[in-house]
Amino acid sequence: MTGTLMLAGLTGVCIGTYGYLDATAPRWLAWPMLLAGIALAAVGFAVAGRRVERTRYRPDRWRAGESSPSSRVWERPS
Questions:
Q1: 1 half-sphere exposure, CB direction, 13 A CA radius
Q2: Angle in degrees, CA 51, 53, 59, rounded to 5
Q3: Residue 69, φ and ψ in degrees, nearest 5
Q4: 23 or 76: which carries more pLDDT confidence?
Q5: Which region, left, alpha or beta, applies to residue 55 given φ > 0 means left and ψ of -120 to 50 means alpha?
Q6: How many CA atoms lie within 13 A of 33 on its CB side?
Q7: Cα angle value 22/23/25 (rounded, 5°)
Q8: Are 5 and 44 contacting, i.e. CB atoms less than 8 angstroms apart?
């Protein structure tokens, strides 16, 4: 469903843009298709955003020796 909404929306945007830029195309086609395409693409983005699951991953805090790149210069190799 998400892919269909996105493709239909982008197709509508392309047709609307073509209708707006082409002098021989009917003007009544340009704005409705452009607005409908933008609306369908926005709905597609919203539906796709609901399906994304976010993790609660939190990286560990850095310790004092890890926060400075110059601290590795003074380490003695083992």
A1: 7
A2: 160
A3: -65, -25
A4: 23
A5: beta
A6: 19
A7: 70
A8: yes
Distance, in Å, from the CA atom of 61 to the CA atom of 37, rounded to the nearest integer, reads: 45
Residue type, 75: E
Q: Which amino acid is at 6?
A: M
For 22, which DSSP code?
-
Q: Which structure tokens are listed for 41?
A: 């693409």
Q: Which DSSP state fits 41?
A: H
- Altogether, the residues listed in the chain come to a count of 78
Residue identified by tokens 């996105």 is: 6
Model pLDDT for residues 4-53, shown as the tens digit of each residue: 888 999 999 999 999 889 888 888 888 899 999 999 999 998 888 887 77
